[in-house]
Amino acid sequence: MAVFTLDDQGRVTGWPESAARLFGPTAGEAAGRHVCDTLLTGPGQRGLVGHALAEVAAGRAWTSTVAGGGLGEGRFAIRCEPLAGPVPGAVVTAWRAWPPPSAGWLADAAARIGTTLDLTKTASEVAGVAVPDFADAVGIFAAERLLADDEPGASVRGSGMAVRRLAGRVAHQSQATTDAVLPAGEVLVFDPGTPGADTMATGQPVLSDHLDDRSEERMRRLQGLAEGAGRYSSFLAMPLAARGTVVGCMLFARTPASPAFTPHEVTLAAELASRAAVCIDNARLYHREQRTALALQRGLLPGQPDVPDGLDVAHRYLPAGTSVIGGDWHDILSLPGGRAAMVVGDAMGHGPEAAAAMVQLRTAAHALAGLELPPDQLLSRLDRIAETISTAPFATCVATVIDPAAGSCTAGLAGHLPPILVLPGGDTRVLALPPGLPLGLGAGVFDQTPISLPHGTTLALYTDGLVESRTRSIDDGIAALRKALSTALATPDAPLQAACDAVAHALSQQREDDTTLVLVRVRG
Q1: What is the model's pTM?
Q2: Tell me, what's the pLDDT at 222?
Q3: Which helix (H) or strand (E) holds 392?
Q4: Are 333 and 306 in contact (CB under 8 A)?
Q5: Pair (306, 398) in one structural domain
Q6: What residues make up the domain containing 44?
Q7: Nearest 5°: CA angle at 85, between 82 and 90?
Q8: Is the same domain home to 91 and 37?
Q9: Lowest mean per-residue pLDDT among 358-362, 407-411, 448-452
């Protein structure tokens, strides 16, 4: 490290022994001469010094990383601050900041990237490795068609390429500023003949000393990145190729104060791009599988319930783990005469196997309920269907037919937990129904029981995930559910969905399985 001083015109006024040891010129050789004639003699460095002195004159500190000219090999970080005292000038602190990249840099880069399967975070890790240790700016892009449609598309020299920016980083700019003007997720087109389009079409690196007109215009419109493209003089476009497919590219840039990219550094950039491409493609493939799974799972969720006049219905479903859907299902179907069929079921287990069984049972139950079958016959036919489903050994179910005008209900169980009746005022009662055997065991015959549902009464249907866990027995869970229902529905006009959400939240703290709660209230 060395500290020296300049006057407000850039002439050296103080050159201690530390500066002589670091840079070479003696105090006699440097004193009184302009710093651009003794030290910062490279292309573009005079303009850099002018900008630094203007910042200092305005009372601000200025920091940059420079190389070339009288600095010799390597790269130096330089900080200029206003000189204290009556004479205007600058105090300059300089230290060696960037030796040429080496194999050690690549080993460090390999350890820092690919720590996550999040596509944006992975690209950000790569950008953090590249800037400022290898370049002054970098943009990382993926082929838009590959991300959107999982299709590589035709990429030939002379044709443009639609890409999506995954990450951008600029030396000496805050990440917030960079993200604001170079946002991740922005889709743009590399025109034919541009370094980005050519490197993706040929799979080969492209060196350039200027940007294409469209990219320069885009950079000039960006606010917050100093002089835009004009502040860079060396560009390197590198393809990102993984598993035989070019999935995107990296665009590196250096300012005139930095050395131009050398053939050796192109080789280093190729090594970095090779490692980065695999990590980015892994994240892309994970993102694709996750997107596919979520789309399929959301497609299995029930649609908008068909609720007849005279009833209010609220429901809450919470899957186990990170799944969107599991083995639980619920369905409500309007029937002639103002009646409604309500079915709640639980295919054993959770995850994709349980979801596959669930959707078959839910579809079958919906079709059977539409035939206006009473609960005992619906369960009997559903039992025969469940025997043919191999993905889940059995399932439990509660089937009801509710007549709000008559204030009555008929319910049947197939190995399911009994419904709970919540009377106006909050008193609760567990309905004593014959439990029956689960679906899929070939029971064949199921019972049904008539239930009185006076106006203002709420019927609670639920699955065992709501009340049972390894640390809570079913009896204790049902007692907790009754207490929560009594509290949430203490007033007859309590909003039903809010009550349902509150009860589900109160009992799901120990949730280990899919959880479903459905509340059906007969209007007064």
Answers
A1: 0.53
A2: 52
A3: none
A4: yes
A5: yes
A6: 2-96
A7: 25
A8: yes
A9: 358-362
Least confident of 97-101, 289-293, 411-415: 97-101
Which one of 293, 320, 335 terminates a domain? 293
- When pLDDT is cut at 50, 70 and 90, the band that residue 241 belongs to is very high
Structure tokens at 160: 């443009």
Domain CATH for 227: 3.30.450.40
d(CA 520, CA 404): 10
Q: What is the DSSP string of 120-157?
A: HHHHHHHHHHHTTTT-SEEEEEEEHHHHHHS------T
User: Span 209-229, mean pLDDT?
Assistant: 61
Alpha carbon separation from 480 to 458, 474, 485, 509 (Å, rounded): 17, 10, 9, 12
Calculate the alpha carbon distances from 67 to 28, 45, 72, 113, 177 in Å. 24, 9, 7, 27, 25
* pLDDT single digits (tens) 56-109: 999 998 888 777 777 766 677 788 999 888 889 999 988 776 555 555 677 777
Mean pLDDT of 284-298: 71
322 and 468 co-located in one domain: yes
270 and 318 share a domain?
Answer: no
DSSP 223: T
Which H or E run contains 366? helix 352-370
Amino acid letter at 401?
A: V
The pLDDT of residue 352 is 73
Whether residues 336 and 460 share a domain: the answer is yes
Rounded to 5 degrees, φ, ψ at 240 are: -105, 105
- Total domains in the fold of the chain: 3
Decide which of 217 and 408 is more confident: 408
CATH, residue 62: 3.30.450.20
Query: How many angstroms separate the first and last alpha carbons of the chain?
Result: 84
Asked if residue 88 and residue 216 are part of one domain, the reply reads no
CATH code (residue 431): 3.60.40.10
Burial class for 313, CB neighbours closer than 10 Å (0-12, 13-18, 19+): buried
Sheet with 328-335: list strands edge to edge: 328-335, 339-347, 395-403, 408-414, 449-452
**Which of these three, 235, 269, 293, is where a domain ends?**
293
CA–CA distance, 257 with 260 (Å, rounded to integer): 9
Same domain, 326 and 280: no
Average confidence (pLDDT) over 303-332: 80
127 and 239 in one domain? Answer: yes
Cite the DSSP H helix spans in 371-419: 375-387
- Compute the average pLDDT of residues 203-231: 68
Q: Look at strands 458-462 and 408-414 and give their pairing.
A: unpaired
